[in-house]
Amino acid sequence: MNSSNSQPRPEDTEQFLKRANASKPTPAEGAPQRSRPSAKQRRKAEQRKQLITMLSILALVVVIVGAVLAVNWWQNNREGTLPENQRVVAVVGDEEVEIPPYSACEIDDPDCEPGKPFELDFKGQEEITLRIPEDVYDHDWAMLSIFDDPGANDEQYHKANETTETTVRLKSEKKKSDGSNPELTVVEIHSLLVGRDADGEETPVATVWAISPAGK
């Protein structure tokens, strides 16, 4: 007696598997196949990248060094202004007056004698402005104000590049014993500059500008 649920035969199973395998997609013929770079190729690419970075850094260093050398050459070869030719500019109202040094002496020169203070007409102004040369204000310098009452004398020190101009008052804010304000007799600018000796060699030069109100 035959059963209603028949079992599949082995030959039928084999044919089914063959048809399933035959239906799987295959790569198109002639299509390019991607391959991962080998360790050697990756190493070469990394070395190439490092070389490019090193060359870029080297080029930057060369540019910076070249710029520094160019600036140093310019500074060493430029014609500087000697201390005796430096000028302080006094601004009185709308007028500008160039003030030459009162003295420009080598530190160890016992024979150097100062000149006379520059007499400046204040033209009725209560104060004036002094513009300092760059060769002076680019390092420490000092200003001494001397009044007809020693108790009002004043000395100010300025650091490098701190002050390019300063104000000078004709009268002090202090009071004398009689109640009047001490009046300015002379104002001095002091600076140590680089000059040249009799042999043309560089030497430190103590340079002073002295200004007194006209008629004092």
TrEMBL record:
Note down the stretches annotated as region Disordered: 1-45, 163-182
Q: Which controlled-vocabulary keywords does the entry list?
A: Membrane, Transmembrane, Transmembrane helix
InterPro entries per the UniProt record, alphabetical: DUF2771
Q: Where is the composition biased (Basic and acidic residues)?
A: 163-178
Keyword hit for Ribosomal protein: no
The membrane-spanning stretches of this chain are 51-74
One Pfam family assigned to this protein is DUF2771
Tell whether Ribonucleoprotein is among the UniProt keywords. Answer: no
Could you tell me the superkingdom of the organism this chain comes from? Bacteria
Q: What is this protein called?
A: DUF2771 domain-containing protein
